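Entry 14. Ran structure prediction on the chain below.
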Amino acid sequence: MKLGLRKPSLKRRIKSRTSIKRQIVHRAGIKMPRGYGWIRNPKKYVYNKVYHRTTFDIFKLIKKLFKK
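Output, structure tokens:
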């Protein structure tokens, strides 16, 4: 498990927002409501929960520094 700063990847960011799978799921209306990820894949849900609590994003850090 990673601790600390997450390395941003522009390639992955673009890929995730333009993927065919995402477009199909969103257009078909078979999205899960927010917070229901544990139903679809509990193992992935737990991993992501821990990962996001133990690491931080550089863009959010910069945003907080320049915010009032």
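The helical segments are 10-17, 20-28, 37-40, 42-54, 58-66. Will compare against last week's run tomorrow.
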